[in-house]
Specification:
By secondary structure, the chain is α+β, with helices and mostly antiparallel strands. It contains ten helices and eleven strands.
């Protein structure tokens, strides 16, 4: 029970966290990509600001304020040791000239307490702390009275010592300038990243739009691959899928159009045979045998054509791909050819344990259709295979008359038959299956003097 309760609590927490993330995070891919780029950039700028402000700026500020407090303390000590008016005047002028300060002693005056007079950064706190540690009399620092100057007032027993210093003597650089630079550079980089990411997302949107239109039957032109490498690969894969589907639909449409044409001939013969049957009851059975044999032949022909159409229409899409040894495929095909009296052999298979991943029954049908087509045009058939870099090549060679170069593409079309009584679907079925496996099938001249069928499949 305790384990079930803990599991339910964990599942509930994950669901709540997922809903919260969906509410907070942007829904679009562009928004999420910008967020992914903006958060690290913002964190980097914040760390840089902290390192600069917390280390370098504070160290330099403490050193500058310490030097200022030391100079004022030494001047006060000199004024206390040499109290004559002439000496005081010389001390103030000499110390001011050497330190780059303007020092004035206002005798008889008292220091008036004023409100808070802080500025951005650590310089005001550092100077106040150093003055308190170095000077034993009350002090006040006015950061805003004079433009680009700092007025330091020290209450002495004889009056108020006023020290005017340039602000750059204490301030390294305005903190707001560094903050503005960090924020501005982050915003600029964010905008540049947004422009680049927008181009990537635009390519994805075009791909999604093309897929939607293609699914609705509104065929469009092929997508121009653009954007990142992965998006380009997706666009190329979509174009290939689009071509395969269009070719598939075109082939099925051609088959449906050819069914009515091819079946019309035997149906017409059957109709004529039935019309010519004698109407009289005085007909012997042996007189009808030739007509019945002709009608049975027409029915067998129709069954053969319909079986070919169904084989072409079914395909092998529902079959699960498995690992297939090429040599086993060859042995089955060679054994079947030898049973019908054909001369068949297995050539080189490199390497000997060469295998492919595909739908077993479909690839057997491809090989059987190819060798059966070769058997009707040749007396010798040789099977061989080899492995390429990323594909496997299967060769079917024969010693027949070959195929003219002008017909090497058309023989793979439906109803292109080179023998009497054929449906012309064997090689069309083979090409359809090979394309479904992501491969290619073609014809060329073979080493045996006839044709060579080359089947290329992914390794």
């Amino acid at each position: 029970m305790g384990t079930d309760s803990a599991s339910e609590a964990t599942t509930g927490w994950r669901r709540w966290r997922g809903r919260l993330a969906r509410r907070i995070l942007p829904r679009s891919l562009l928004g999420r990509m910008l967020l992914i780029g903006f958060i690290p950039l913002l964190a980097t700028q914040a760390i840089s600001l902290e390192l600069f402000y917390g280390n370098y700026l504070q160290i330099v500020s403490r050193r500058l304020s310490g030097d200022m407090a030391t100079t004022i303390s030494m001047t006060l000590d000199m004024l206390e040791r040499y109290p004559s008016a002439t000496d005081r005047k010389w001390i103030l002028e000499d110390a001011g000239r050497r330190a780059g300060l303007v020092m004035t002693l206002r005798e008889g005056e008292s220091l008036e307490r004023r409100g808070s007079n802080h500025v951005l950064g650590p310089i005001d706190e550092d100077l106040a702390r150093d003055l308190q540690a170095s000077v034993r009399w009350p002090t006040f620092v006015d950061w805003k009275k004079a433009h680009r100057r700092v007025v330091i007032l020290v209450q002495t027993p004889i009056g108020v010592l006023q020290v005017i210093a340039l602000r750059k003597r204490l301030d390294v650089a305005p903190v707001w300038l560094f903050v503005a630079w960090a924020s501005g550079s982050a915003l600029l980089l964010f905008l540049i990243a947004g422009l680049f990411m927008r181009n990537q997302v635009r390519a994805i949107r075009r791909l999604a739009r093309a897929a939607e239109l293609f699914g609705l039957g509104r065929d469009t032109v092929p997508i121009v691959p653009e954007g990142a490498q992965e998006i380009r690969k997706a666009a190329v894969a979509f174009n290939r899928m689009r071509d395969r589907i269009n070719r598939f639909v075109e082939q099925r449409t051609t088959v449906l159009a050819g069914v009515s044409h091819d079946l019309r001939t035997p149906l017409t013969r059957l109709r004529l045979s039935l019309a010519m049957f004698p109407r009289s009851g005085m007909v012997r059975a042996e007189d009808l045998q030739p007509d019945i044999a002709d009608m049975i032949g027409d029915i067998v022909e129709m069954e053969h054509m319909i079986e070919g159409y169904l084989s072409f229409a079914r395909g092998e899409g529902a079959e699960t791909p498995t690992v297939i040894r090429v040599e086993e495929l060859f042995e089955e095909s060679v054994a079947a050819l030898r049973r019908v009296g054909a001369q068949a052999s297995i050539g080189f298979v490199t390497p000997p344990d060469l295998s492919i991943i595909g739908r077993s029954n479909a690839l057997r049908r491809v090989l059987n259709n190819v060798v059966e087509n070769a058997r009707h045009h040749a007396t010798r058939i040789a099977l061989s295979a080899e492995r390429g870099r990323k594909q496997v090549f299967i060769y079917v060679d024969d010693n027949g008359c070959g195929v003219e170069e002008a017909r090497r593409e058309s023989v793979f079309r439906a109803f292109e038959s080179g023998k009497e009584g054929g449906t012309g679907l064997g090689l069309a079925i083979a090409r359809d299956i090979i394309h479904a496996h992501g491969g290619h099938i073609g014809l060329e001249s073979g080493p045996l003097g006839g044709a060579r069928v080359t089947i290329e499949l992914p390794a």
